[in-house]
Amino acid sequence: MLRITTCIKQVPGTTKVEVDEETGVLKRDGIESKMNPYDLYALETALKIKEKNGAELRVISMGPPQASEVIKEAYMMGADDGLLLSDRKFAGADVLSTAYTLSQGIAAQGMPDLIICGKQTTDGDTAQVGPEIAEFLSIPHVANVIRIREIKAEAIVVDMDLPYAVETVEIAFPCLITVEKGIYQPRLPSFKLKKATQDRPIHQLCLKDFTDQNETRYGLKGSPTQVVRIFPPEANTERETWEGSGPELVGMIHDRLITEKFI
Amino acid sequence: MASIKIHQNNIKDRDGLLEVCPFNALEWEGEELVTNASCKMCKLCAKNGPEGVFEFKDDPVAVVDKSLWKGIAVYVDHDNGKIHPVTYELIGKAKEMAAKIDHPVYAVFMGAGITQKADEILAYGVDEVFVYDHEALTHFRIEPYTAVMEDFINRHKPTIVLVGGTTVGRSLAPRAAARFRTGLTADCTILDVQENTDLDQIRPAFGGNIMAHIQTPAHRPQFATVRYKIFSAPVCVDPTGVVTICDVEEQMLESRIRVLEVAPKQASTSIEDAEVIVVAGRGVKQEKDMELVQRLADLLGARLAATRPLIEAGWADPKTQIGLSGRTVKPKLIITCGVSGAVQFTAGMTNADLIMAINNDPGASIFDIAHIGIQGDLYDILPDLIEKIEATEENVCTTIPE
Ligand SMILES: Cc1cc2nc3c(=O)[nH]c(=O)nc-3n(C[C@H](O)[C@H](O)[C@H](O)COP(=O)(O)OP(=O)(O)OC[C@H]3O[C@@H](n4cnc5c(N)ncnc54)[C@H](O)[C@@H]3O)c2cc1C
Ligand SMILES: Nc1ncnc2c1ncn2[C@@H]1O[C@H](COP(=O)(O)O)[C@@H](O)[C@H]1O
Questions:
Q1: What is the phi-psi region of residue B115: left when phi exceeds 0, alpha when psi lies from -120 to 50, beta otherwise?
Q2: Residue A248 lies in a domain
Q3: pTM of the full predicted structure?
Q4: Which end of chain B is more exposed for a tag (fewer CB within 10 A), N or C?
């Protein structure tokens, strides 16, 4: 049977965070969490394949213990099994060490045939974790998938969205795809599945369960990028009113169109 | 490597301690306060927490020998040899930074049948274009493209690699960065370089609600992606750089991906997908004058749209009506010409990034939502504006024939 792993992440319920300009502190008012909306599409894609072709669907998430909530939610949508990678040593992870941790967690459970990631997260917002997981697992990947065409015995055929074309490609298993928002309409968690899965365990792994236990590859230690500073963006909401003669106005419009790179 | 040390003995008041961290990364493990996997090492706890409790420890790290890494490389994004302009914008930024640290600017150009196109890139002032031209690189497939990038980096050791934030770039850059176990910062909006060749990368986070300044202090090369239209293309120069043809070896070309079909997309004609829109409203007096608005739209690569009265008059295609009973659009720029700004209209376009409104009535309600309200007569403005744009030379470098 086809084995699919979907990567899901718990993200803050809102991106409307503000930074206090004086103190540099993030203002938060009881930020709640939810599943990364883009991952709902990844999950739905996996569920569609499962329904049509039969598959065993595992979800995996790296995060603090409360991230198990998104795994429960995935159970309520139809995932069979869930794995949470949680360890204080994973703290402060950037793209590289997040992807490395996920690749270790995926490998620890036996390589699946197909890994599906969301296009991006709403907090990290990089769209890079998927391709980096594929690199660490030495498997091919295709990003921006907008359609699943066919599941073959040894490969999957998908449509990939490019700016000027849609490319149909066949990727041999094992492989990773990242799917676009809107590939399928995500289903709602079902009450029936909620009851049926409420006692289903969520597996947890920490660093000592991994093949590679070198601490310098995880969390902040394994992160080549470092955040030097966070600060609020310049407000761009001011309104301007321009008055003047025709030629003056033309000059101003022309200049602005150039600075904004429309000409 | 950095860490947060929590001095449990110095905790006087347990209340409110968890709230010191905006990322919910603090938690009680029994009696002990600990950081969990959400910690971003932002140091805010050390800065804002109670005295003596949180300590940020920055241990010295094993640093690469930065002097061994020289040059700023730009990945040449293209579609069958048609070079994406983001490439030139990155070259512009690369030249600016390279001048500060006295490094060369490289372009990495991979594909099939592209060699003769390399000269085009020289005209933007790069020092060396490395061309990997091979049949098997016709389509973007991740393994061969990454292998070529790897070959280039191993041979020339650039300190910085810039990649356009295009569909291809956003797939290739992370793959290559992971292969070198180095950092990559996505969608940078500001880039600068330090004397020690560290790249300052600034990018929006949390959907643009905060900005993050990021560095890759101990790894090389430093990867960054930048979207189209963030930087400016450089002015053309007399080319002084060289084109170097590189060997594409068989083992670079292995791939488990097969391209079965490429279906070119119809250029979308729907106004919903347009990045720039010019709207004609009833300030346009006669049908013939629609040509004026259309001309402006053409010059800006924009789509022409209209308000309902004009649609009803049959002056424009009903599919181009914006508003409550029309379409909803979210372009980067919308220019309205002679539109009053009735709510039924604005309901379809208030999410545009930049709204420029031309109207001769200072009291028109379109000015309440416009970012730039231009009080003037469209018949005074449009003809001259069109003329002026037509006169603006396009910044495309054409190769000087030998
Ligand atoms: C249920 C309902 C649904 C509707 N849905 C839509 C909809 O989807 N889309 C839509 O567009 N409308 C819709 N309408 C109509 C809407 O209410 C307005 O009537 C319409 O948007 C006005 O179009 P306008 O701004 O082009 O014309 P006007 O309101 O007549 O405005 C023309 C403007 O041009 C300015 N002007 C005149 N001459 C010049 C000049 N030489 N230079 C510069 N400025 C000049 C004037 O000062 C004026 O502000 C709907 C109405 C209803 C009741
Ligand atoms: N911590 C995580 N746990 C599980 N999956 C993740 C995590 N971070 C990122 N992903 C996956 O990678 C995709 C891209 O994330 P990003 O690169 O952060 O935009 C997401 O849609 C997820 O599928």
A1: alpha
A2: no
A3: 0.81
A4: C
